[in-house]
UniProtKB/TrEMBL annotation:
Belongs to the Orn/Lys/Arg decarboxylase class-II family. LysA subfamily. Pfam families: Orn_Arg_deC_N. Homodimer. One of its GO terms (molecular function) is diaminopimelate decarboxylase activity. The lineage of its organism: Bacteria, Bacillati, Bacillota, Bacilli, Lactobacillales. Specifically catalyzes the decarboxylation of meso-diaminopimelate (meso-DAP) to L-lysine. Substrate binds at residues 287, 324, 328, 356, 384. This is Diaminopimelate decarboxylase. The active site is at residue 355. Its cofactor is pyridoxal 5'-phosphate.
Length: 427
């Protein structure tokens, strides 16, 4: 998000036509706020880019980025697929009324119960990740009319240029069937022999928060090469090639993401050059759909000044609602929501309230003059914020509000202290 492009009115940050300072007053802080129009617009950009490129496609929202009932309902309205990685995400999506035939079920260690739940609910496709899962699924599919679509997640041997914890496509990865060593071929054979599994195609995901098109072009090329080898071996041509997600977003000025249009047109060129019968192309964006739409509002509290060093300005949340700075050294930017347009006068550390020295949300943030009670808005927190939130130090998780067309709606209640002990039992 570019700070200069943020909307403001009377010195207040506006989100989706709603005054963010009013939201902080109405719902309290910390508060996650999502601009739903931004989510819809990003989905439409992906779809349009595929249509312009003339590819058969499917956009599947990677819901690990943000998985609550309301977002699954937005995805249903936008008529996209979703992917889930656990029984909990599947349960939430189904409870939200999301159609099961548009769900892909991922994960590197799906349990018998999770696979059974997926089969019983007739999910659109199960992404098989390892031999253990092929075995479990074969046990679950007891009769011929229990046929289910599957895809094989492959490890294509491509390292994305991103944080180590965000890489998934390299050979040394916990995800997927390794192509180099022949695991992928063996898995393909097992699945093709099982008449209760319908092999829809092949999948790979090289990582997350990736900039540039190079990695994705390499991946598209590699997937066609793999498909051609499999065709020779098994006379099988995939109906779908799923290229995963991972499209980077701009968290700060240094980040320079590619647009959906750039990425998809280049992939389309590569695919059309590589083969005559281009399969349907699926992508699984998570961060790029919800990340830029999200803001976290905090109230500024204590301040610690140290001679000749930047001050520590603390807010009422921190690593419990956004683990990304501590976990991936992620760099965010913030504005003071009730002082938009005011001149910056200092650089400060934005500290969280958790009992950890590493609980610093922003290492260096330019700020106008601030005081206790001001509202700080950290930008681009829509992905992997709420979904990775936790109760460390027994801090309740914040509420989530959706805004659209000047209206706000609470979609997840704030946890309270009673919620925190609701699972505890006396001893
Ligand atoms: C298989 C798969 N698909 C899609 C994604 C979504 O990635 P992102 O949110 O970076 O688009 C992930 C997460 O890294 C993933 O593991
Ligand atoms: N949780 C990661 C993205 C997913 C990485 C692995 N699939 C992040 O916040 O960047």
């Amino acid at each position: 998000m570019i700070i200069d492009e943020l909307a403001s009115k009377n010195g207040h940050l506006m989100i989706g036509g709603v005054d963010s300072v009013d939201l902080a007053k109405k719902y309290g802080t910390p508060l996650y706020v999502f601009d739903v129009a931004s989510i819809r617009s990003q989905i439409r950009k992906f779809k349009l880019a595929f249509e312009q490129a003339g590819l058969k496609y499917q956009v599947s929202y990677a819901s690990k980025a943000f998985a609550v009932k309301a977002i699954y309902q937005v995805m249903k309205q936008e008529d996209v697929h979703i992917d889930v990685v656990s029984g909990g995400e599947l349960y939430t999506a189904l409870a939200a009324g999301f159609p099961s035939d548009k769900i892909s079920f991922h994960g590197n260690n799906k349990s018998f119960e999770e696979l059974e739940m997926a089969v019983k609910n007739h999910v659109g496709v199960i992404m098989l990740d390892n031999f253990h899962e092929i075995e479990l699924l074969a046990r679950i599919l007891k009769t011929d009319d229990e046929k289910i679509n599957v895809m094989l997640r492959l490890t294509p041997g491509i390292s994305a240029h991103t944080h180590k914890y965000d890489q998934t496509g390299q050979t040394d990865s916990k995800f997927g069937f390794d192509v180099e060593s022949g695991q992928a071929k063996k898995a393909m054979q097992l699945v093709l022999e099982n008449k209760r599994m319908n092999l829809l195609g092949i999948h790979a995901h090289i990582g997350s928060q990736i900039f540039g098109t190079q990695g994705f072009i390499m991946l598209a090329k590699k997937m066609i090469e793999i498909a051609k080898n499999l065709q020779k071996e098994f006379n099988y041509w995939p109906q779908v090639i799923n290229l995963g997600g991972g499209f980077g977003i701009s968290y700060n000025e240094a980040d320079d993401p590619i647009t959906a249009q750039e990425f998809i047109s280049q992939i389309a060129n590569e695919l059309k050059q590589s083969c005559d019968d281009v399969p349907e192309i699926w992508i699984e964006p998570g961060r790029s759909i919800v990340g830029p739409a999200g803001y976290t509002l905090y109230t500024i509290g204590s301040r610690k000044d140290i001679p000749n060093l930047p001050p520590y300005i603390s807010v009422d949340g921190g690593m419990g609602d956004n683990i990304r700075p501590a976990l991936y050294q992620a760099k965010y930017e913030a504005v003071v929501a009730n002082k938009m347009g005011q001149e910056n006068i200092e650089t400060a550390h934005i500290a969280g309230k958790y009992c950890e020295s590493g609980d610093i949300l922003i290492d260096k943030q330019e700020l106008p003059e601030t005081k206790v009670g001001d509202i700080l808005a950290i930008l681009d927190t829509g992905a992997y914020g709420y979904s990775m939130a936790m109760n460390y130090n027994r801090n309740p998780r914040p509420a989530v509000v959706f805004v659209e067309n000047g209206q706000d709606k609470l979609v997840v209640k704030r946890e309270n202290y009673q919620d925190l002990i609701s699972l505890d039992r006396d001893y």
